[in-house]
Amino acid sequence: MQTIDAADLDYRTVNEALREAGSDFIIEGCCGQRFIAAGMSGKNLTINGIPGNALGAYLNNANITVNANAQDAVGDTMNEGKILIHGNIGDAAGYAMRGGKIYVKGNAGYRAGIHMKAYKEKIPVMIIGGCAGSFLGEYQAGGVIIVLGLHKDGRPIVGNFPCTGMHGGKMFLRGGCEDIRFPKQVTARCAAADELEEIREYLSEYCSDFGYPIDELLSEPFTVITPDSKTPYKQMYVAN
Amino acid sequence: MKIEGQVRIPSGCAISAAISKDGNKMSGEMIINSMKPMHDRSNGLGGGFAGYGIYPEYKDFYAFHMFFDSRDTRKKCEAFLKERFEIVQSEIIPTRKIPAITDEPIIWRYFAAPLKSVLVSLQSEEKEFVAKTVMKINAEMPGAYVFSSGRNMGAFKAVGFPEDVGVFYKLEEYEGYSWTAHGRYPTNTPGWWGGAHPFTLLDYSVVHNGEISSYDANRRFIEMFGYKCTLQTDTEVITYIMDYLLRVQGLTLGEAASVIAAPFWSTIGAKTDLENRKKHTYLRTMFSSLLITGPFSIVLGFDGGLMALNDRLKLRSMVVGEKDDKVFIASEEAAIRTMEPNAENIWSPAGGEPVIVQVKEGVF
């Protein structure tokens, strides 16, 4: 295990140190350095402090654990690997991610999972333990977004306008979600047993990562949201 | 060289703020340091700060901070001011020569009070008179620019990275109960000293990260009320909108936030609290031309407080944190951690949700 002291280092220096380091290392004193581990593979990284924007962008199979909050655009366009956040994440987490996992203990900001996509065996998964901000899953094209609504403190599990422009993938929100307004082109319904079975593996992993009992998580019903049509924009402007 | 207002270049920024609710004084050093982890959000074409409570010895006088292009312009402007104001102090704003900041204009400050006789003859209220004077100088006096005009507060700005601008203006020597800061990445204009943030009028100051798309609609409306937007930059119009809504129209901070970052009609329509729905409907209808669209996160500084606000779609980041008597606001949590490593209750306000922090009555 190697340690990089990031205090007073700029992001280039931190990333250069990462590339030269072995596979396992810790960054101490991180404070806003952007693009950490961008595009990297074959690394196990723990970050103490606050990583900057675009943590793990284009990540290509590395494991990142953050012991605090993370800022905006975590896992932007990531391809493979896992990012584990023990705090909250900022806006636009998992922007256009096409594989890998982002598991967050706390809340997510606006536009989590914007334009997530999937292809064949590549299925990105994002699990948010707390609540998500507005525009969750905006333009979602594939993959799985799960919001658990643990420690809600009376707030809604998701802000305004979830699933705007969603045309692929699945979203699971723990609870009934009767009060949430979804756009017309998606269907929200109570998740059936086989649908919950699909995500059980991810939930088990999440529970073992953060120390929750899975039975408690599954004691409430889940709402699953899917897009209605394969051509959601068919009549947006003209009939075609 | 073409200066601000003559060129439009079709772009991001960093903002940061700190306030003590108990009115405890903080030197400018902390706020300068907060900009360091956000260095890459700026491109060196503008940085600036506003400090409140920094001029206690002149707290009853308007502090005019000014840029002049020449000694001759300064003399002319002084003659103009002397006909309207009692100037109790006139001095160069102290700066230090550093390689990172060059080509500075003449930077001057005056502590002044409007002449009572002038106010009586014009039948003008004091603040209105000061605001009009600022507009007149900025619009009609080439080479002279008022970049700060409040009492017991001041803006300090320049072309450069914000951490260098703070050193240039020796901000560690000032003490205020609240500070705001800005690092600029100019998107529409070439970047001149006057175009750096904060933009100010009277005691209002605005630092802004974003680029609003309603600039011209807002400008056309606000210019009907005597404001003159001279720099083509969106933050200038936001500052005048806040002055108009708060000082002229007498709206509360929360109401002004509901005007500029109004909820969608669908969100207003879904409100179950009828009074609340009625109020939002009224504000959107009454001030429809002051709705600001496009991305913004701003911190408004005013006498005794700060208000942070995001656009209603939240297209820019903003984080708030607390520690003891202090509240911190910044584009990134890293900036808050630089000011206070043990900051608590870190959260991101929703789009259109104002965060208003006021200093306890009587301590500032």
Structure description:
The complex is a heterodimer of chains A (240) and B (364). In chain A, 13% of the residues lie in helices and 27% in strands. Chain A is an alpha/beta fold and 240 residues long. Chain A has two domains: 1-87; 122-240, 3 Solenoid (Pectate Lyase C-like), CATH 2.160.20. Chain A has an eleven-stranded mixed beta sheet, sandwiched between helices. The longest helix of chain B is centred in the middle third of the chain and has 15 residues, at 126-140. In chain B, the strands form four sheets. A seven-stranded antiparallel beta sheet of chain B has the order 8-3-10-1-16-15-17. In chain B, strands 11-12-13-14-18 form a five-stranded antiparallel beta sheet, covered by helices on one side. Chain B has a four-stranded antiparallel beta sheet with strand order 5-6-4-7. The radius of gyration of chain B is 19 Å and the shape is globular. Chain B is of the alpha+beta class. The A-B interface holds A 10-11, 31-34, 49-50, 52-53, 69, 71-72, 88, 90-91, 109-110, 133-135, 159-160, 181 and B 37-40, 264, 267, 270, 313-314, 317, 319, 332-335, 337-338, 346-348, 350-351.
Average pLDDT confidence of chain B is 94
Multimeric status of the protein: heterodimer
The CATH first-level class of the largest domain in chain A comes to Mainly Beta
Level-1 CATH class name of chain B: Alpha Beta
- Overall mean pLDDT of chain A: 93
Proper CATH architecture of the largest domain in chain A: 3 Solenoid
- Give the helix level of chain B as a range of percent: 25-40%
Order of helices and strands of chain A: EHEEEEEEEEEHHE
Structural class of chain A: alpha/beta
CATH superfamily of chain B: Aminohydrolase, N-terminal nucleophile (Ntn) domain
CATH-defined superfamily of the largest domain in chain A: Glutamate synthase, alpha subunit, C-terminal domain
Please describe the biggest sheet of chain B, giving its number of strands, its sense, and whether it closes into a barrel.
7 strands, antiparallel
Count up the helices of chain A.
3
- The general outline of chain B is globular
Alpha-carbon Rg of chain B, integer: 19 Å
Strand content of chain B: 25-35%
Q: How many beta-strand segments of chain B?
A: 18
CATH architecture of chain B: 4-Layer Sandwich
